[in-house]
Amino acid sequence: MFVLVRHADAVATSAWPGLDADRPLSTLGDRQSIHLVDVLADLPVTALFSSPTLRCRQTLQALSVARHLPIVDHPLLTVDAPIDRLLFTLARSVDGALWCTHGEVFDRVAAVAADGGHAGFLPAATTAEAGVWIVDPGRDPRYLTPIPPGRPPRQPRSLRRCVRGGPASGHACFGR
Predict the structure, then answer these.
(1) Residue 154's domain spans which residues?
(2) What's the pTM?
(3) Which of 66, 83, 94, 133 pairs with 114 at a CA distance of 20 to 30 A?
(4) Could you tell me if residue 24 is inside a domain?
(5) Residue 126 and residue 145: Cα distance in Å, rounded?
């Protein structure tokens, strides 16, 4: 079992004058990151891997403190990392590993799942900011809605034919 987390709500790109990698969480994102501790309380999270961006690291900060786990930057969680290498790494990750990344990476993972190009354990639906997927190969992924909810997720064009209602409705197709 491993966990995929989309970073919590961040300050809008248009409102941030600095580098995108340094863009922090918004006030809503701060609250969402704190609630991740409760949302994941019953899961045996054993390792925290993050995109090296500030917003991903901040998303995991409260969980890191609560679980006494370090946040490890992982280059395959960046927006432009090769998706095939990330999928290979996820499929072989340690049990209980948590991976925090970006919406664009989730879109690419979902497109692979929707096209059936990888084992059927990948989430194939859109993911809201601070949304959580619990992935256990051999079972359908389970989606946990962010608390508090943020903006609705943008559905990638490649999934519009596949997903009816999105994760909130409990319906998504999964690649086999």
Answers:
(1) 2-169
(2) 0.81
(3) 94
(4) yes
(5) 11
